[in-house]
Sequence to fold (129 residues):
Amino acid sequence: MMIGSVKRLAAVTAIAAAFAIAGGVAASRAEDAPAGDPVNGKRLYLADGCFECHGRAGQGGRFNYLTPALAQIALPVESFIAFLREAPNDMPSFSADVLSDKDAADIHAYLSSLPGRRDAKDIPPILNQ
Fold:
């Protein structure tokens, strides 16, 4: 991995951590957060092209640098929406005119519904069969 990529990944991680910490404040306003619809969230995630960098199952990938896995997202919905509004690096920002808070909450609900990564020991050894 190149040093520039490591620096960019560290910056994205630091920003995500800051939003996670800010999420503690936002959690007190969780009752104001729009409820998410994972079915519509999946439609939006695919239609808006999120999968192109983050994978169809939110598993993460590689664009100009490593893109984070989003399955089982840990960010509270308010922090996720704030992150979308001021996205770092090559990720496009989505204003409320382009992606409403409700649509963003739907995407968050979809990402939260995904199974996430499995431990290697839980993956069947199909190559040995």
